[in-house]
Amino acid sequence: MHVPLENLITVSNKIKELINEKQLKTDPKIIVITKKFPSTKILPLLEHGNIHFGENKVQEAESKWPDLKKKFKNLKLHMVGRLQSNKAKKAVQLFDYIHSLDNAKLASKISQYEVELKKKVKLFISVNLGEEDQKSGILLNNLNNFYSFCTNELSLNIIGLMCLPPQEVDSREYFHILKKSADELSLKNLSMGMSSDFEQAILCGSSFLRLGTVIMGERPTIS
Predict the structure, then answer these.
(1) Which pTM value belongs to this model?
(2) For 3-18+28-216, CATH number?
(3) Helices and strands (H, E) in the chain, number of each type
């Protein structure tokens, strides 16, 4: 059997077992992150019925996904990497979900292109919970104002919050904070949990898991 497909089945079963064991009222979606992997590696997962896939870069998504989207009509494509405002139009065209909304300029551009292209995208606000300088994201104390700006002034479809906890820490502390913040804004969706911490994310209420290595294997190095 195709290795990523085997991995996907294994991970899906592990998630079901965890939900049953802990009696959780949750059904997190697996977004398979396919950065640097060719269509040939992705096709078996699509044929198996997985519909959520993620990319980190607009340019790579553009070269890979339009044909697959034509063939697999229920496919949902997620932008999970940082998005520059000059790529916003392409992102609105290509993606169904954007997980990296992190500043007012980008929000305004997305709003503008949604009107132009007559398409609504499902958006997550990226929250920089660790207040790390090297990471983008809205700081927690600015979240309410930013959410209000996006929804009231721009009519954006904000469906949830996303975070990337600091490395070498217990992610659960940050996942709990994100869940509390989402609850306060009456947002139902949480994009949290990657290959190393997806089980903790499920226990904290994640609705979208961003899984790359644990399913696709180590990324090929492209020279």
Answers:
(1) 0.96
(2) 3.20.20.10
(3) 9, 8
